[in-house]
Amino acid sequence: MTLTVPTSNRSALRWAISDVLVLARRNLIALLRIPIALVFSIIQPIMFVVLFRYVFGGAIHTGTNYVNFLIPGILVQTTIFGAVSTAIGLAEDLQKGLIERFRALPMARMAVLAGRTISDLARNVLVLLIITAVGVLVGFRPGGGIIAYVQASLLMLSFAYALSWGFAFIGLAAPTSEAAQAMTFPLIFPITFASAIFVPVQTMPSWLQGFALHQPVSVTAEAVRGLMLGTPHGANTYVSLAWALGAVVILGPLAVRKFRQAIK
Amino acid sequence: MTEYAIEANDIVKTFNDGKFTALGGVSLQVPKGQVFGLLGPNGSGKTTMVRILSTILAPTSGSATVNGFDVFKQADEVRKSIGLAGQFAAVDENLTGYENLRMVGLLNHLDRSFVDQRAHQLLADFGLTDAANQRTKTYSGGMRRRLDLAAALVASPPILFLDEPTTGLDPQSRQDLWNIIENLVEAGTTVLLTTQYLEEADRLAKQLVVLDRGKIIAQGTSAELKAQLGNTVLVLTFHSPSDATKGAEIIKDVSAKTANVEGTVVEMTIDKGPASAADALRKLDASGIELAGLVMREPSLDDVFLNLTGHKAEDVPAQAPTTGRRSRKARA
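YS: structure for the whole thing
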């Protein structure tokens, strides 16, 4: 007969955590081995920094030093773009048959999605630090202090993490990883540009202001900006957290459901 | 507990809201400790059946047990009892061979120290020790298949699903995989093997089921199927289609099987090999019809299909949505 193999006796929850970590580690190994992917995801925000700081910046009047207005916004945009990698990674795994293999293993059902979103979160932390350093190089001088910077970072990372569950859904629904990337574009373009990320919303036409002022990316950008610069930011922090929580509650189960149906 | 390793009752699977039927009521009884072959062309439903039995896909109706566990109600127990290796060799390209096996071992909830040892042992068994620390991106098709199979074996499952394990492989790699599979069965593993190759089914499987368009059209041992079919195929080429038609009529008594005429070529399965062929030649010679060519060959899956269904294996409608949904790259 086949030999008996020792399985460890752990609770289901501990196994689920172990599964998530095994898969997150696997994704991070890929990140380290294909550094070019990370380089590309850093080049884009750096181009935005340069473009808005030196090309458009002179024409944008915020009443303050524009670079201090810009960098918190760029950081929010960068973390949202970073969450898109969840869609691409899952679509790739699905395409290559790895999800199929995972589904035939006695592992926690949600581990594939949780492992992917968590490794993308870790990646986002790295990108956030790099772009902050780039910001400092071009003159970004946040006045809010280090604790406020950490708070602001946690806030935007939470927001991006919540969105990554939506991108997970897209990745599982897309026929290829290229399609997944293309499908996310019409979603993130309006919410990051019709927002308070690059310019004060007040300069937009009135029909756009209502959306641009209240949509969650703007709320998050204003909260992050307020925290980092040490300026008043009202209830934006709480509203942003509420959006993030709401997104996870709605998008999480949707993604898990899609995962169950992913192989038709 | 059932005496069978795998038992499926009337499995039906439809796609696109019932518009496409991948499986139209398939029942299987796979005895323990042998290779059971699921033979059929692309789109016949083999992969869908494997996906259902390995808990990846839910059927539209029907029931099944694997290792005595209900595939739908005790999916986790089933997953602990099975290994799955597929034609697309699902290995992570960015990980090394060793890391791939380690990952699968840990996801099987095996002891960490055991996983290490097991991974190295499997790499050695499958001739992958030298490539253990190379990324699988650099592996050849045959190496990928072997690693894929090794990954399916990490937890030493009593039941193994092999979905077209040798499709696209060179003869040597195919031979290697066959040897591995035979050793596994000798050690007590039950294997459900899907294949498009009669030769492969013949070599490995004790019992066979032939699937066509989601239905079982024949079953039995390989010898029984061959007896049904005739042992040899006689292929005669004539100078003109009318000669071919006349020729087929003249030799019709040589075999109990009907000859298949296509253009100038007549194919006929015969039971007695050279004796039947000589008989056919004598008859043709006496009638004065001249032959352009003569070949005798082993029956292929096409012949099985032609005999059982009246159509060739390739006649099956284009790829079913089961695999057509995603354009995967078969790299082997």
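YS: worth flagging: Chain A has one domain: 13-261.
IM: good catch. Also DSSP finds ten helices and no strands in chain A.
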